[in-house]
Design a protein that fits this description.
- This protein is mainly alpha-helical.
- The chain contains twelve helices and four strands.
- The N and C termini lie far apart (40 Å).
């Protein structure tokens, strides 16, 4: 659903580009990369996910699912990151005609597993929110899937569910690795495209968990090239505090010492 009618009708009077986003949201990172690559000026509206601002009535009047990002371009509201990056780039992506792989759909389908792995292997290092915050989120957020996800996280996802998420993530990376094995510089061929933008934050996020990218050398080489782009630094790294990266590394090391890190699940444990 690329464009929707806003519940907050005041959005229709906005001029220029406005973006509601969060620093660590991978979907927000995609959008910021696209904005940086196209040198698009925009007005930033930060949504504090740790304070559950996405559960507020005011934000859910912008994005009905209470998710980030959301973009308004001269009164037009677009809420899905894949649609937003295509809108910013002014292109409509088509699947690779040789391989038949729809790289954007593959990236979009990977988001649910990426969210689960992020919460399990990175965000579980944070203290559990107080009961009143948990209750308020459940009462105020309209997205039933997200409410259930939060409950599942608090109770623990369970080994089988984590195994399945790791399996699907590994399978997606293997697909990308094979896709890049013909020597292409970028995912879409010889030109940087929205396909690269869609996947850059995902690979970065798994790198924070010490995902074994030696299993996919072509993908690893591609990501090294992506890291050298100014947009990667401007739209992703500058929004990631060094202290946060250090805390993630400490937690990952702890999980590795316990034998419960991401490499202990799915095909990575073999």
């Amino acid at each position: 659903m690329p464009e929707i009618e806003p519940k907050d009708t005041s959005l229709k009077s906005l001029t220029g580009v406005h973006v509601w986003h969060a620093p660590l949201s991978t979907c927000s990172q995609r959008v910021r990369i696209a904005l940086a690559e196209t040198a698009t000026s925009y007005q930033s509206h930060l949504v504090n996910l740790e304070k559950d601002e996405h559960a507020s009535q005011s934000y859910q009047s912008i994005h009905p699912d209470g998710l980030v990002p959301a973009l308004v371009d001269n009164g037009r509201l677009i809420i899905e990151s894949i649609d937003i990056i295509q809108h910013i780039a002014g292109v409509s992506y088509s699947p690779d005609t040789d391989s038949g792989i729809d790289l954007l759909k593959l990236a979009d389908d990977a988001q649910a597993d990426l969210k689960l792995l992020t919460f399990e292997f990175l965000f579980r290092s944070k203290p559990t929110p107080p009961a009143e915050s948990i209750d308020a989120f459940q009462a105020n957020h309209q997205n039933q899937w997200l409410r259930q996800f939060r409950n599942d996280f608090i109770r623990g996802f369970g080994k089988d569910r984590i195994d399945a998420a790791v399996q699907r993530t590994d399978s997606g990376f293997q697909t990308l690795n094979q896709h890049l094995s013909d020597g292409r510089e970028y995912l879409g061929g010889n030109t940087f495209s929205v396909a690269d933008i869609a996947w850059m934050p995902n690979v970065h996020r798994l790198q924070l968990m010490d995902w074994p990218f030696d299993r996919t050398p072509h993908l690893n080489s591609w990501f090294q090239r992506m890291q050298s782009r100014p947009s990667y630094r401007e739209a992703l790294m500058q929004w990631q505090p060094d202290e946060l990266k250090r805390s993630f590394a400490i937690y990952t090391g702890l999980r590795q010492a316990q034998g419960t890190d991401v490499r202990a699940f799915g095909p990575l444990k073999s």
